[in-house]
């Protein structure tokens, strides 16, 4: 069986393979098997391997143990595909490794085929199993909840098994499908590490384990409900693709994942400048009124918005969240002439039009549910708990997908919709389909529906929203090009949310909006400058009610909107840099253009700092031998907190990239929740 001997920085040419194999020969301890069973690319229980098996299942109770052998391999300059056979269990497994030489990201794709004449019940299928270097002793995972997603958490890789199992039916708020393993105290700049991400939007399992032999491994793949997958004779199942990257420091890993996603995952339309959004939700909620909406559009346009998104509440019977989902036609009691007046007004102002949908859901109080109660995921004899007063439609059914496609397509055609905010607001509970578990079919159905829409409307932009960031992965992003990162737009909470998100996803697809002065989810009050600067870290937009802002606030929003428009010309090809700080409350990060001629940096004190003055901040990723002009925005608002402001902020300076990256910049006094924006461009 093939095994991975090395996954890390590029080694010199190996001339003697036998010498390499000799180095990697494994000793055999006492009180174990008489021969060593090293970790293979498909570890299996039938060979005697005592770690996590990549495949579990049986054939009517027998053939519960698999033991694969190499059948053949196919190799090219950038890929290798191993075909493995278990003649006894009558299974064939193929594992393909494809290395993208530009980004250094490795894509691993596994496939299982039932070569027997009877059904094979599958209990577990790993996408990949990777060895963890002996020097790697820490694991970073992204955990969270609704309103506080993508929080970084560190664990020690020890004799205790680290296991994450997500059974929510979506990528989830709680557990991101991926992790980073590395040397002790690895950070943004230093430490060898390996990052992995499972590009899948359903149930999955991730395990990090160090065996008693000292060997450690990382395994990620499908989590399967009982009886969910039974492979018929000749049937094939594809495991979700796993993406892996070795790097020195988190910044390098992040840049490699961003480059890969831009080239090989995201839709082509994400390569165009991303427009400034204005969303109606927090301004109006369900209180739709055409006159109020027209005024809201005018106000948003005057603050720099380029796309207006009509959120929840526009369709039949939808006056609150208890009814209407599934009835995808315009509510004539609110919009007697449909949305034509509103859409015409939006377009006359030069804005694009976006519309909110939640296609996968249905309210029990709806025409759709009244006519098709059999169209929901359910288990006979059991009551499915509601979440947000809704149930989940069974997208494993062709009839359901056809209904949703026709409903959405009709509205896209009628109103020439530019953009869809595709929401999904609940976990899957009792996800039964025709008496069996149906999460895998559900996820495949969502993908199929999105693929069908994108094929018919290649210029239609779709955002992945799932109560915020509960569906963010490369699987859904192959079909959508924006993620609503979190329902929380409190800029202080957004600092950690957006930093965790940014480890694997590029900034231009990260929805980041300016909210109200008092955040609706947290009740925290922050100034407009801090809210706008934090929103500049992603795709800039507005959630606030622009009808109720002062002229001064409107001018301030326009200032940051213009800055965003300058940055977006190059940010979609930029490299992301997090600057490590001594004080955990000081968040410093930036985007540097591909040619290193332009960059911008956001500096935020999330709470009171440990010292009177912030630490000196170094910039990263610049050209050492080039002169840079540094312009600070927002320092005037901080003057009253100190007796003196550093000269470089008051008077523009031109210094070398080497000085900025090694000596750095002294900051002014920064109280809690204050922010600065730095423009750093070659002079």
Instruction: Tell how many strands the DSSP assignment holds.
Output: 34
Structure classification: alpha+beta
Tell me the major beta sheet.
Answer: 10 strands, antiparallel
Strand fraction equals: 25-35%
Q: In the CATH hierarchy, what is the superfamily of the largest domain?
A: alpha-galactosidase from lactobacil brevis
Kindly report how far apart the N and C termini lie: 57 Å
CATH fold topology of the largest domain: Beta-galactosidase, Chain A, domain 5
Number of domains: 3
Give the number of helices.
14
Gross morphology is globular
Poorly predicted regions are: none
Radius of gyration (Å): 27 Å
Helicity range of the residues?
10-25%
CATH class assignment of the largest domain: Mainly Beta
Overall mean pLDDT:
96
Describe this structure in words.
The protein has 683 residues and is of the alpha+beta class. The chain contains 14 helices and 34 strands. A hairpin with a 2-residue loop joins strand 7 (138-145) and strand 8 (148-156). The strands form six sheets. Strands 2, 3, 4, 5, 7, 8, 10, 11, 15 and 16 form a ten-stranded antiparallel sheet that branches. Strands 17-18-19-22-25-26-27-28 form an eight-stranded parallel beta barrel, surrounded by four helices. The protein folds into three domains: 17-264, Beta-galactosidase, Chain A, domain 5 (Distorted Sandwich), CATH 2.70.98; 268-484, Aldolase class I (TIM Barrel), CATH 3.20.20; 577-682, Immunoglobulin-like.
Descriptive tags:
single chain, about 675 residues, alpha+beta, Beta-galactosidase, Chain A, domain 5, TIM Barrel, Immunoglobulin-like, 10-stranded antiparallel β-sheet, 8-stranded parallel beta barrel, 34 strands
């Amino acid at each position: 069986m093939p095994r991975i001997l090395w996954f890390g920085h590029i080694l010199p040419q190996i001339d003697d393979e036998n010498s390499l194999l000799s180095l990697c020969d494994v000793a055999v301890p006492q009180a174990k098997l008489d021969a060593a069973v090293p970790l293979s690319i498909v570890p299996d229980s039938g060979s005697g391997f005592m770690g996590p098996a990549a495949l579990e299942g049986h054939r009517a109770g027998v053939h519960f143990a698999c033991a694969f052998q190499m059948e053949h391999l196919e190799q090219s300059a950038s890929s290798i595909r191993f075909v493995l056979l278990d003649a006894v269990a009558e299974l064939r497994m193929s594992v393909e490794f494809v290395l993208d030489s530009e980004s250094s990201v490795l894509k691993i794709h596994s496939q299982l085929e039932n070569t027997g004449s009877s059904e094979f019940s599958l209990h577990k299928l790993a996408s990949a199993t990777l060895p963890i270097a002996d020097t790697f002793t820490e694991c970073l995972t992204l955990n969270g909840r609704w309103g506080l997603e993508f929080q970084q958490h560190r664990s020690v890789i020890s004799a205790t098994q680290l296991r994450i199992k997500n059974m929510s039916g979506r990528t989830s708020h709680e557990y991101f499908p991926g992790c980073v393993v590395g040397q002790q105290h690895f950070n943004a700049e230093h430490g060898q590490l390996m990052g992995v991400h499972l590009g899948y939007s359903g149930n999955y399992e991730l395990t990090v384990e160090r065996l008693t032999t000292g060997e450690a491994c990382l395994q990620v793949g499908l989590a399967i409900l009982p009886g969910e997958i039974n492979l018929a004779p000749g049937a094939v199942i594809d495991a979700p693709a796993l993406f892996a990257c070795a790097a020195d420091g988190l910044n390098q890993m992040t840049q490699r994942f961003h480059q890969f996603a831009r080239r090989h995952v995201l839709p082509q339309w994400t390569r165009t400048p991303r427009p400034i959004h204005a969303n109606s939700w927090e301004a109006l909620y369900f209180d739709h009124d055409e006159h109020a909406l027209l005024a809201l559009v005018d106000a948003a346009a005057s603050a720099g918005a380029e796309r207006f998104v009509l959120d929840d509440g526009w369709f039949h019977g939808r006056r609150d969240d208890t009814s209407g989902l599934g009835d995808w036609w315009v509510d004539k009691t609110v919009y007697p002439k449909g949305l034509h007046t509103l859409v015409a007004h939006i377009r006359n102002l030069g804005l694009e039009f976006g519309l909110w949908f939640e296609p996968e859901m249905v309210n029990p109080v709806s025409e759709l549910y009244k006519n098709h109660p059999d169209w929901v995921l359910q288990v006979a004899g059991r009551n499915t708990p509601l979440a947000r007063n809704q149930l989940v439609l069974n997208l494993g059914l062709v009839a359901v997908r056809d209904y949703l496609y026709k409903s959405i397509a009709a509205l896209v055609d009628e109103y020439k919709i530019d953009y869809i905010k595709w929401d999904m607001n609940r976990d899957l509970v009792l996800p039964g389909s025709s008496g069996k578990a149906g999460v895998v079919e559900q996820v495949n159905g969502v993908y199929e529906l999105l693929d069908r829409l994108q094929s018919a409307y290649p210029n239609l932009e779709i955002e992945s929203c799932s109560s915020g960031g509960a569906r963010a992965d490369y699987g859904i992003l192959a079909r959508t090009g924006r993620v609503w990162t979190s329902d929380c737009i409190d800029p202080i909470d957004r600092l950690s949310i957006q930093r965790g998100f940014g480890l694997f996803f590029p900034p231009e697809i990260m929805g980041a909006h300016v909210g109200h002065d008092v955040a609706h989810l947290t009740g925290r009050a922050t100034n407009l400058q801090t809210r706008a600067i934090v929103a500049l870290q992603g795709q800039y937009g507005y959630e606030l009610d622009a009808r109720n802002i002062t002229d001064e606030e409107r001018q301030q929003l326009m200032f940051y909107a213009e800055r965003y428009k300058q940055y977006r010309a190059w940010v979609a090809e930029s490299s992301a840099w997090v600057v490590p700080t001594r004080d955990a409350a000081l968040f410093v990060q930036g985007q540097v253009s591909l040619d290193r001629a332009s960059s911008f940096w956001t500096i935020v004190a999330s709470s009171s700092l440990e010292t009177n003055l912030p630490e000196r901040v170094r910039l990263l990723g610049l050209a050492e031998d080039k002169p840079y002009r540094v312009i600070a925005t927002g320092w005037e608002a901080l003057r009253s907190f100190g007796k003196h402001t550093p000269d470089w902020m008051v008077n523009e300076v031109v210094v070398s990239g080497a000085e900025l990256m090694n000596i750095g910049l002294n900051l002014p006094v920064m109280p809690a929740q204050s922010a600065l924006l730095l423009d750093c461009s070659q002079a």
